[in-house]
Design goal:
This protein is an alpha+beta fold. The chain is built from four helices and twelve strands; from the N terminus they run βββββαβααββββαββ. A hairpin with a 4-residue loop joins strand 11 and strand 12. The two termini are 26 Å apart.
């Protein structure tokens, strides 16, 4: 038997997305967001949902672009800081010592030290309630060159963070359980 938890914002895994934008003065800014994921295959799109109160919200509307940098486990402090400090009050790059890198593809910065980056042009946005969903068309995906070699999965080399909304904490990715599109082939229809 299952116990009802009610209508809550819980799903697993929940990503740790560091959203990069330029503000109206051209200052690079980042914020950590957990509400998001792939939203379309063709064209390739990713979505993030932000509250209007965030500094990043208005920057995306002005620049029509954003990036998503995926932090590795060894940057958990910086990723958390990006979610608790506001770009209105502090230069987050200066505070953490991380490097804003200007995208060559879209009008937004990404975090140079983070191993995986998705560069997006704003396709559309939809106000849902407290949050607005921003859908970005993926224009490029970048990964640290050193991580493109090897036999294991890219996710094992990146070691991205995962957020747990029910017990606010960060986790790492565990080991592979089984190959996709293979494990289910062992089931024979009755």
């Amino acid at each position: 038997m299952k116990k009802s938890l009610g209508a809550k914002t819980i799903t697993y895994p929940t990503p740790v997305f560091v959203v990069g934008t330029y503000d109206a003065e051209g200052k690079p800014n980042v914020m950590t967001a957990a509400w998001g994921g792939i939203s379309c295959s063709d064209p390739p799109c990713i979505s993030i949902s932000l509250r209007e109160a965030t500094y990043t919200y208005h920057s995306i509307l002005e620049s029509k672009a954003f990036t998503i940098s995926i932090p590795a486990e060894d940057h958990v402090q910086e990723a958390d800081y990006f979610g608790i400090a506001s770009g209105r009050d502090v230069d987050k790059f200066q505070a953490t010592g991380l490097t804003p890198v200007k995208s060559e593809v879209v009008n937004a910065p990404y975090v140079g030290e983070f191993p995986f980056v998705v560069e997006c042009e704003l396709l559309q946005h939809v106000k849902i309630g407290l949050h607005t969903q921003f859908i970005g068309e993926i224009k490029d995906v970048k990964v640290d060159e050193s991580l493109t070699e090897g036999d294991n999965s890219l996710i094992e080399r990146i070691k991205p963070l995962i957020y747990t909304p029910d017990y606010p904490a960060y986790y790492g990715v565990g080991e592979m359980v089984e190959r996709a599109f293979s494990a289910g082939r062992q089931i024979k229809p009755g």
